[in-house]
């Protein structure tokens, strides 16, 4: 195991003369070595912000590891503008990293979230030295998980992220004025601390006052509203075929970018690229066996990976295959490695989505029933009132928000007790039911508002009556008041076994706040609307209006 030498703040000059700085971890002797590059806006010296990347450990495994602050962040020069320079800067940095002393000329890229997107954008720029990418927990279409979902703003995520990232912006702005800096940071921290109680509630949501108040970047949605072309800089969807590189895609079923990870893999494979997929039960930040209220077991952890070794080990072996001539890099990963929740085991597959999963309708029924038989003509509808002044509180799920909001599967009792949440429950299952794939809902709904939201959630209810969320989704709809319309709601994907004796449960409601911004029920533009009103909502579930959830069922 080689010793490691660390060089701090090595300068790399971009094509426009801007200098970006990186910390470089390298084996002290031997070589030449392949290079692993991570580019991030969160601070290269912050262990929690580099996505679990063990730079020292990877260097000891025979890699040069480069951690670079992106343009305008921390040690790097230039102006911070999310996404805008990542393709060109990524290209230039890959070429610079390939030429570092001790390099074998081959570069791979690593990291998750924003770091995952900087891999895709660099790969799209096609530097010849870039040989493989390993994007984790990152998006594909920014309007499906990053900026928005189903037309609703990812409010809780974007506010929390902007406030966190805004600290470095203020430190640069007031670097020469300690008094101004202290006041600015104090105000920012106050808004961080009161996000759940007050900041998230401010209007208009599409031009949120918190960004103007501190003069910080909104990180995406508002800018995308003003300039749709701007969001194209971080869009991977539709462009994966342009990346002729192997990719190792790692995600989590309760990650805010769960579907993006899957979509990137699917598109890469469809284009004939070498692509590998690992999906754990994880959230954006937790990769242990304990996620939310559920202990999925020791083997679920990224440090165990079903006793295959650590995720770092798997990633190291995978990179060695593509960046070196070493034919003894370790056991080959399967094309797809899934953690099947409920059964709590890892399973190797050859494809995603699974061709043998059968779409199966699960119908809402009268009197809160739920079943696989279609409803009869007279089963009618259910009603509730959605008031934006009292929205349904976010309780678990694939979220990344301020610390008050726990991620993953949580007890839904508080949500299900509300009068504005319709609850439909099946009979206990006679045998295990596996749902692996993308879950969708089709809801026949009417409202007296010109615009409203429909939220659908699938839950697992155990024999003791504890209801845990599995997947959910939202759609924002302009409507003709009083008219029933079928709305499609994408609940994203999962791999989950509902055990014998358990019951399936479906929620239908109109809010999940502050995860998603509130529909004010007025039809006003999201970047100017501040008035709101209650809406009378009605969900049909009879033969003429068969509201249902479509489950990809895998038979044993």
What is this structure's SSE topology?
Elements lengths: L3 E10 L5 E9 L5 E8 L14 H6 L3 E6 L16 H13 L4 E10 L1 H12 L4 E7 L11 E2 L2 E2 L1 H19 L4 H16 L15 H6 L6 H6 L1 H4 L15 E8 L3 H13 L4 E9 L6 E2 L2 E2 L15 H13 L12 E5 L4 E5 L8 E8 L3 E3 L9 E6 L26 H4 L5 E4 L7 E15 L3 E11 L5 E12 L6 E14 L4 E7 L25 E8 L2 E2 L1 E7 L2
Parallel strand pairs: 3-4, 3-5, 5-6, 6-9, 9-10, 10-13
Antiparallel strand pairs: 1-2, 2-4, 7-8, 11-12, 13-14, 15-16, 15-26, 17-24, 18-23, 19-22, 19-24, 19-26, 20-21, 20-23, 24-25
Pick out its properties.
556 residues, alpha+beta, ten-stranded mixed sheet, eight-stranded antiparallel sheet, 11 helices, 33% strand, globular
Describe this structure in words.
- The chain is built from 11 helices and 26 strands.
- The mean pLDDT is 95.
- The two termini are 45 Å apart.
- The strands form 5 sheets. A 10-stranded mixed sheet has the order 1-2-4-3-5-6-9-10-13-14, with helices on both faces. Strands 15, 16, 17, 19, 22, 24, 25 and 26 form an 8-stranded antiparallel sheet that branches. The chain has a 4-stranded antiparallel sheet with strand order 18-23-20-21, with no helix packed on it.
- The protein has helices at residues 55-60, 86-98, 114-125, 155-173, 178-193, 209-214, 221-226, 228-231, 258-270, 311-323, 413-416; strands spanning 4-13, 19-27, 33-40, 64-69, 103-112, 130-136, 148-149, 152-153, 247-254, 275-283, 290-291, 294-295, 336-340, 345-349, 358-365, 369-371, 381-386, 422-425, 433-447, 451-461, 467-478, 485-498, 503-509, 535-542, 545-546, 548-554.
- Helix content is 20%, strand content 33%.
- α2 (86-98) packs across α3 and α4 packs antiparallel against α5.
- The chain is α+β, with helices and mostly antiparallel strands.
């Amino acid at each position: 195991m080689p010793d490691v030498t660390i060089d701090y703040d090595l300068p790399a000059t971009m094509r426009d003369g801007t200098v970006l700085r990186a910390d470089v971890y390298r084996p002290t002797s031997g070589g030449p070595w392949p290079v692993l590059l991570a580019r991030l806006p969160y601070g290269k010296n912050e262990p929690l912000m580099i996505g679990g990347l063990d730079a020292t450990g990877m260097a000891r495994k025979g890699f040069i590891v480069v951690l670079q602050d992106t343009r305008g962040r921390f040690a790097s020069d230039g102006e911070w503008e999310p996404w805008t320079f990542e393709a060109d800067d990524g290209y230039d940095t890959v070429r610079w990293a390939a030429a570092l002393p001790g390099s074998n000329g081959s570069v791979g890229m690593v990291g998750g979230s924003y770091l995952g997107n900087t891999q895709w954008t660099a790969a799209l720029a096609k530097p010849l030295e870039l040989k493989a990418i390993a994007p984790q927990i990152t998006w594909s279409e920014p309007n499906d998980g990053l900026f928005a979902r189903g037309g609703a703003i990812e409010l809780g995520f974007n506010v929390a992220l902007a406030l966190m990232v805004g600290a470095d912006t203020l430190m640069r702005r007031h670097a020469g004025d300690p008094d101004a800096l202290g006041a600015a940071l104090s105000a920012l921290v106050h808004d961080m601390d009161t996000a759940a109680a007050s900041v998230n509630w401010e209007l208009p949501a599409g031009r949120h006052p918190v960004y103007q108040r501190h003069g910080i970047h909104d990180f995406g949605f508002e800018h995308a509203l003003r300039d749709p072309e701007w969001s194209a800089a971080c869009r991977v969807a539709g462009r994966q075929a342009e990346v002729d590189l192997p990719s190792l895609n790692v995600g989590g079923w309760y990650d805010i970018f769960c579907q993006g990870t899957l979509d990137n893999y699917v598109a890469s494979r469809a284009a004939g690229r070498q692509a590998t997929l690992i999906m754990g039960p994880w959230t954006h930040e937790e990769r242990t066996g304990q996620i939310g209220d559920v202990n999925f077991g020791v083997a679920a952890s990224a440090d165990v990976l079903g006793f295959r070794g650590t995720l770092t080990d798997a990633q190291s072996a995978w990179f060695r295959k593509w960046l070196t001539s070493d034919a003894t890099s370790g056991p080959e990963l399967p094309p797809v490695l899934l953690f099947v929740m409920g059964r709590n085991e890892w399973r190797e597959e050859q494809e995603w989505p699974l061709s043998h999963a059968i779409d199966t309708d699960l119908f809402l029924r009268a009197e809160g029933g739920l079943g696989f038989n279609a409803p009869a003509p007279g089963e009618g509808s259910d009603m509730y009132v959605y008031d934006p002044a009292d929205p349904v509180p976010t309780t678990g799920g694939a979220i990344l928000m301020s610390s008050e909001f726990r991620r993953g599967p949580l007890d839904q009792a508080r949500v299900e007790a509300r009068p504005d949440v319709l609850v439909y429950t099946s009979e206990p299952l006679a045998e295990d039911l596996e749902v692996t794939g993308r879950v969708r809902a089709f809801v026949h709904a009417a409202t007296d508002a010109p615009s409203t939201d429909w939220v659908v959630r699938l839950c697992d209810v155990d024999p003791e009556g504890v209801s845990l969320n599995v997947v959910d989704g939202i759609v924002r709809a302009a409507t003709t008041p009083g008219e029933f319309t079928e709305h499609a709601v994408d609940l994203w994907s999962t791999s989950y076994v509902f055990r014998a004796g358990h019951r399936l449960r479906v929620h239908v409601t109109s809010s999940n706040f502050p995860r998603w911004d509130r529909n004010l029920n007025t039809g006003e533009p999201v970047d100017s609307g501040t008035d709101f009103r209650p809406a009378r909502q009605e969900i049909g579930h009879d033969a003429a209006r068969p509201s249902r959830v479509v489950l990809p069922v895998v038979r044993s």
